[in-house]
Amino acid sequence: AAKERGGSTTVEFDESMRDTFRFRDELEKELREAIRARQFLLNFQPIVEAADPNVIVGFEALVRWQHPQRGLVHPADFIPAAESCGLILYLGDWVLEEACAAIARLNACGGRGADRYVSVNVAAHQFLSASFSARVGELIMRKGIDPANLRLEVTEGVAITDAKRTREVLEQIRAWGVKTSLDDFGTGYSSLSYLQQLPFDTLKIDKSFVADLDDKRSQQIVRTIVELARSLDLSVVAEGVEDAMQGELLAALGCDYLQGYHYGRPLAESEAFARL
Ligand code: C2E
Ligand code: MG
Ligand code: MG
Ligand code: MG
Question: What is the residue with the minimal CA distance to atom 41 of ligand 1?
């Protein structure tokens, strides 16, 4: 394209960079507007028992952007931008509040809804912000939910940003009675010493290992993660399970819980909760 415009490779690079920035600017403006106009919604994906996948133990809340022109936009296409411009604090707070409201509705269904949890993704910046654990406590009280029915997921990026602060926040959250998961485990840069120091309850094995289970080495990695989790008294969820064979293998390798399209796609709240 640069050649056609008579430019050099450098020009092409510069122009695409400028386009990227313009796009980012535009996206940021739209995100700001979307937060104001409440264009976000949560989907819920079931998490099941590995020993009996008919049993749903909880749901992961996953945000979507109902864009007026572009339709349903997935988090990969806006979370990074929201993180880099700081809007993730507002978006993340909306997600947390909405998830707590959903927990109240889930538990109000009675029966099996009463002891199922909803797991919420929390960005590093949000998790490490000064008011985060107080906000969690406030929402639990205001929505009148059992803290055992709320879970929080963070990635290894949190610990890398500030391990000491991460530990503090994890301890405050644990004091509320809320459990925490380390998400996308195995893909980040965290050293094992973080794991030993940070009081998580659950490891979520990243879906890249699950997708690769035909490879004996991936199986060996899963087995090793499970052993590590056992020795640190953590439970294990495997993500991205797309067929029954993967699920059976992961159960045999010792995973406690499974999540993936095979057991249920992320669904609108009413559809998801109706599956209980
Ligand atoms: P994640 O937390 O690891 O969530 C799991 C992702 O895997 C979801 O993608 C889910 O739809 C997808 N998934 C589930 N089962 C399968 C499967 O069987 N196969 C495959 N290929 N994928 C599967 P989604 O909803 O697009 O979210 C992507 C990421 O965006 C999430 O990864 C999470 O890191 C982030 N995210 C989502 N919602 C929020 C949020 O409310 N706040 C923040 N900060 N991040 C969020
Ligand atoms: Mg997650
Ligand atoms: Mg994950
Ligand atoms: Mg992810």
Answer: 63
